[in-house]
Specification:
Distance between the termini: 24 Å
Shape: globular
Low-confidence stretches: 6-14
Protein name: Trans-aconitate 3-methyltransferase
Mean pLDDT: 91
Strand content: 15-25%
Organism: Aureococcus anophagefferens (Harmful bloom alga)
Pfam family, one: Methyltransf_11
Helix content: 25-40%
Oligomer: single chain
Number of strands: 8
InterPro entries: Diverse_substrate_MTase (IPR051052), Methyltransf_11 (IPR013216), SAM-dependent_MTases_sf (IPR029063)
Keywords: Methyltransferase, Transferase
Length: about 290
């Protein structure tokens, strides 16, 4: 069974949530859950390594609406706990995921005991808290030899229409909101060079890359942009302008024949285009405690 930390530890531990993440992900959790991609099977298998999901104690950190949690359950995981600091995301998680307990918590203040897990996963979130304190805390709750798996999906901008859409919305992650932490900027890697991270994960962090895709309707292309935290927090006039800009990009590429909504999505039959996605899975192994 998963051992929880004492109430005193929970009360004394710090909590750190980036303002844009806190506000942006609270804006429309159901939209986030509906339009964000899941993770490729090969990527999840790599995250688990030789761990038997059916018997492992698994923690999903910054679980959001449970997109990664559901994938872990599909792999046979039975002993899973989730932690998510944004109340709207937790509420959507509880609606979408049955049988998995979810706690209010952050990566730098996890409400669990030492060595409580065999695997800790972070899907689409580590860039928000990529620092020494979080890695020390993640190492604390992992058993010796436990795996920390960081997973991300990023739209493949080698496809021209995808590149144009990304260029339209990615300009909004700087400026009035500051320089918003994002996976694609690569700064998260530096956290593993800190002394505390090296002590917890002496082998460092190694990445593997996997192909992924999502079937997307026309509207979901700009809805996905609005699910980005830094777009969700834009003033209404700027959000509306962004939707119009992306709609014009979609019209242009469809008219040129470079984009087609010619695939019926299983389940609802909606006409979709195939959105190519690159998925990265970075794994670090907990070293033995002194």
């Amino acid at each position: 069974m998963i051992r929880r930390a004492s109430r005193d530890l929970q009360r004394m531990s710090p909590r750190c949530i980036h303002g844009v993440a806190s506000e942006g992900f609270a804006a429309d959790a159901s939209l986030y859950d509906r339009v964000r991609p899941s993770y490729p099977a090969l990527g999840v298998a790599h995250a688990l390594g030789d761990v038997d999901a059916a018997w492992a104690r698994i923690l999903d950190v910054a679980s959001g609406t449970g997109i990664l949690t559901r994938r872990l359950l599909e792999f046979g995981a039975r002993d899973v706990a989730a932690v998510e600091p944004v109340a709207a995301m937790r509420a959507e998680f509880e609606r979408a995921v049955a049988g998995v307990p979810i706690s209010d918590g952050t990566a730098d203040a996890l409400p669990f005991g030492d060595g409580a897990f065999d695997v800790a996963c972070v899907g689409q979130a580590f860039h928000w808290f990529a620092n020494e304190q979080s890695l020390v805390e993640l190492g604390r709750v992992l058993a010796d030899g436990g795996r920390l798996a960081l997973l991300w999906n990023l739209e493949d901008d080698s496809e021209p229409w995808v590149r144009a859409v990304r260029e339209a919305y990615e300009v909004h992650d700087t400026g009035a909101q500051g320089d918003v932490p994002q996976y694609r900027k690569g700064r998260w890697r530096a956290a593993f060079e800190t002394p505390g991270a090296r002590a917890a994960f002496p082998g460092g962090c190694e990445s593997a890359f996997f192909d992924n895709f999502l079937l997307t309707t026309r509207a979901e292309i700009w809805e996905r942009a609005l699910s980005k935290s830094y777009c969700a927090t834009l003033p209404p006039d700027q959000r509306n302008a962004l939707v119009a800009e992306i709609a014009a990009i979609v019209d242009h590429y469809e008219a040129s024949g470079a984009l087609a909504f010619d695939v019926a999505r299983p389940g609802d039959g909606a006409p979709c285009a195939r959105l190519p996605i690159n998925s990265e899975v970075a794994v670090a192994v907990r070293g033995a405690r002194a």
